[in-house]
Amino acid sequence: MKKIKNYKNPIMVVSVVGFVIALFFFPFLFMKIEQKSEAAPQKAPTAINTSANACELTIQVSGSDIPIDLEEYVVGVVAAEMPAGFNMEALKAQAIAARTYVLKSTNYGQTQIEPTVAKQVFYDEDTRKENWNDSYEDFEAKVREAVESTRGEVIQYNGELITAMFHSMSNGMTESSVNYSGTELPYLQSVSSTDFQYADNYETTTTFTVEEWNSKLNTQSTIEEIKQIRLQKNNTGRVETVSVKGHEWTGRDFRTLLGLRSTDFQIKAQNGQVTVTTEGYGHGVGMSQYGADAMADKGSTAHEIIEHYYQNTSIEKINCEN
């Protein structure tokens, strides 16, 4: 009888055992669900994001295996391309131009960029420390402030990034894109730039012997023939073509062959030597860095500087929406 009584209600026994097991494991089950809920990622907003980091944009510099955060890259470009002693508003304008240029030329970081004058010069932290020496902390803080205060700002024309070219100093007028490359870009037109009044090294003179001249140009000209040289200049005062004894070069090619600072030059041949006097520094297209500093010293903001050198453009935040 006792044996029959012990097994009288097997369903009740199983239920009791199941209830005990459930009581034991239920807290752990609840804990796991709660932890999963806390770790679940939050959905990102769909609006334009004001932080470039939120876009997770990185730049791959040629020669380096490690991608660089966009804003950190811009710090290295501003430090390399513009004197840190320049006005803060000029440094901000440089940061906006540099950020725009790299995003346009790399398709938002999809391709590499060279850290050279052919694209944008970039200095890493070690190079900045070496170049600035005792001024490193002050200059580093100043450049970072310029970049951070313009974080995510880019230049657009009709809703698209522009090719934000820039140069050191103009000859009083910037160069248009059509004069420089034959390509008409509405935002790269010739505008006034008074930076030559502020640059100590605005005008430079280089002297060549006839032998040096012929070696660089691969010619066999005499001093008398060089005296007959003809320069054809464009509407901004820069040389379009150079002609001498059956040879002709574009102003750009001539500048490269002789290592001149710009395409605004004059040539004088006398006493067995050739003297070339050059005004300005760089290709002259887009923003003049010395001009930006001059405008900033007169009270212009970074946005006003950008709007002057890049006509009919707007400054926008990077759009992180995909």
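Next protein, fold it too.
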Amino acid sequence: MRVRGHGGTRLNVVDFGGEGPGILLLHGLTGRAANWTATARWLTRHGRVVGYDARGHGHSDKPDGPYDRAAYVGDAIAVIEGLDLGPALVVGHSMGGLTAWQLAGARPDLVRGVVIADMNPVTPPDLVDRWRRWLADWPVPFPTLADVRDYFGAARRTEGESFVEVMAGGPDGWRPLARPAHVLASLAHWADRDHRRELGPVRCPALVVAGAESDQPVDRQREMAALLPDGRFALVPDAGHVLHYDNPAGWRAAVEPFVAELIPARRDPVPAG
């Protein structure tokens, strides 16, 4: 499925199924909607679950630009409005979490609640340089998917699994679907910034979920929950940054009660007779 986003960019949309209120899933930098598959399975008990590949990512268009925050938020607005999902529960990981709270602040009519997964609201000044060096070190093309798992899962195996989802195979091996130039252009619009002032306008219920072993500061995320007008905080043990891969049971235990407050789960049908 395709939806025209900000400026006409075609976005690849995945409808994971379910019925009822809309639930929109926003992946992180270099990711794609498929990263949410396991989470989407249990979220379909609560509503219609939709994800999409962000501009420059996955199978969405990869224009030269823009990759600023207005474009990312505009894409989310276009998906919610185009698929009649609003007011939606918006679940975002990392960069997707940033988009989620900016969307909620800009268009409260479209958002019933947000889940912000492992995103630091105060981004470091050297973030773009660190990513530029890291991207340059990737041994692209990867000969096999096993090499992808080994490279990205050196510290935490599950992170390797998340990167398998964002590779495309070709005659010479496996390459990332997101281009480094577009990744860096996206980063440039939220690195070296203090985003805490954006939290006040987020009036809907908000859950901040941090990985206990993440490289994103847990104390900043606790502070973010406190700054949100209707915020709360949950910590997922045995999880790094990609917490929904690292500890899926802990992630679900942290998130589903919040989801159920906003969108109660449908009852299983009673068998006839």
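About the second fold: Residues 77 and 103 are 8 Å apart (CA to CA).
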